[in-house]
């Protein structure tokens, strides 16, 4: 079985509105989350699609879906996420285990709600790569020189750009292995690891690369929303 978990637990602080999570800001005539959700529902790739939001926004999220994409109301479930990203992913795994007959071959595709321009190609290649390799991350080659500074004041190193990539989402996994990896993390590891792919690397597990797209941008700041509006119009 194949499951999609849309991670919509972010806040609106960096968008200038601490009271409204950024995924609920409008992009064109509907919220960012709805644009993202439509891509996954329309793909036809999933047995179930789950949205994970702040607990106080669960009902509002259901209402937003009913208002803006009523055709997918019965295909989408909404539950509360966790305190951190990996907690939210664990909530998704528990939900799918409780609601479906999950076996060792089950795939979970996790995606940021604020990446509304994800393509069908990226979704399909994530599923294929997770089936083939057990885990994958969507990336694009780094185009800028990456500078490392351990103290935030002076350069410590400048890695070879040809070996560097910028991470996007989806990140996709065989669900049972992902669960085992996340449950194996010690408290001190959880404190520094907020990304499931990092947890895999820490455990020495292979994470394959899926080619992303520069348009698969993450909307974080007000200027990102202006760029997204231009992409939408184009």
From TrEMBL:
EC number: 2.7.7.40
One Pfam family this sequence matches: IspD
GO MF term (any one): 2-C-methyl-D-erythritol 4-phosphate cytidylyltransferase activity
Keywords: Cell wall biogenesis/degradation, Nucleotidyltransferase, Teichoic acid biosynthesis, Transferase
Substrates-to-products reaction catalysed: D-ribitol 5-phosphate + CTP + H(+) = CDP-L-ribitol + diphosphate
Gene3D superfamilies according to UniProt: Spore Coat Polysaccharide Biosynthesis Protein SpsA, Chain A
Function in brief: Catalyzes the transfer of the cytidylyl group of CTP to D-ribitol 5-phosphate.
Protein name: Ribitol-5-phosphate cytidylyltransferase
